[in-house]
Design a protein that fits this description.
This protein is α/β, with parallel strands linked by helices. Helices cover 43% and strands 17% of the residues. A five-stranded parallel beta sheet has the order 3-2-4-1-5. Strands 6-7-10-8-9 form a five-stranded mixed beta sheet.
């Protein structure tokens, strides 16, 4: 039984390919690639001649049995066009199926636009929420942003450069003109840029000039303020959730997102309430 290796590839600069990743790509019996044409450029650059097969959004389910047959005979590496497979790229179904069938699954660390943009944005990194690609439909985007309005975590999302101006306009409308935002484009490439500022400033900039290349959005979480809830408000909200049948841990997490309190403190309040 072979091992399924999850191998990140560079998001731009080929020097970001790790030595371990190169060794694995040379040693496995087969590489499953999102786009064999794009991956062939990478493999040729590093002198790797391992056989390749396609594994992408349109054939990912039909390819499973063939890949498991390959795993029965040797190791297989999964790669996407750029970054880490499974992070808004094909891979999840294969990884889940491999785990269910008890094949060894070994993810390698490496390039990922999500974390690269997050640490370069200059916003809080202790808690963050990744929401993948933003919805295309304005109504769905508005609904998503409305659900994030009170969240304290930094939000990271991918967006098409052609829809960036409209997305920033929606952020202004729903989250406020002063919400801090970072637009990271072409990370690790020659024309890499980080635009940081208020949502209104970035909206004005990109409404006039559509960027080129890959774009990652990083949005600051809701700021704590003097309007954070009192203990009485926290207890009332917690009691309401508990009465509705929520588990204490889930109820504490939900109230924490809204109140400005730490989940651990709310959890302790809940323990006292249930004892009483």
């Amino acid at each position: 039984m072979g091992t399924l290796y999850i191998v990140p590839t560079p998001i731009g600069n080929l020097e970001d390919m790790t030595l371990r990743g190169l060794r694995v790509l040379r040693e496995v019996a087969l590489i499953a690639a999102e786009d064999t044409r794009a991956s062939r450029v990478l493999l040729r650059h590093f002198g790797i001649n391992t056989p390749m097969t396609s594994y992408h959004e349109h054939n990912k389910l039909g390819k499973l049995e063939a890949l498991f047959a390959a795993l029965d005979a040797g190791d297989v590496a999964l790669i996407s066009d750029a970054g880490t497979p499974g992070i808004s790229d094909p891979g999840l179904e294969l990884i889940q199926a491999a785990i269910a069938r008890e094949y060894p699954v070994l993810p390698l660390p490496g390039a990922c636009a999500l974390t690269t943009a997050l640490v370069g944005a200059g916003l809080a990194t202790d808690r963050f929420l990744y929401v993948g690609f933003l919805p295309r439909k304005p109504s769905a985007l508005r609904e998503l942003l409305a659900g994030l309005r009170e969240r304290r975590e930094t939000v990271v999302a991918y967006e098409s450069p052609y829809r960036l101006g409209a997305a920033l306009g929606m952020i202004v409308d729903v989250l406020g003109a002063e919400r801090r935002v970072c637009v990271a484009r072409e990370m690790s490439k020659k024309f890499e840029q980080f635009y940081r500022g208020a949502a209104s400033e970035l909206h004005q900039h990109f409404a006039e000039e559509s960027p080129r290349g890959e774009v990652t959005l990083v949005i600051a979480g809701a700021a704590a303020s003097s309007s954070d809830w009192s203990q009485q408000q926290v207890e009332a909200a917690l009691a309401e959730r508990l009465a509705a049948g929520e588990a204490l841990s889930k109820a504490a997490r939900g109230v924490a997102r809204l109140s400005g309190w730490k989940k651990s403190a709310i959890y302790q309040l809940g323990i006292g309430m249930t004892r009483d």
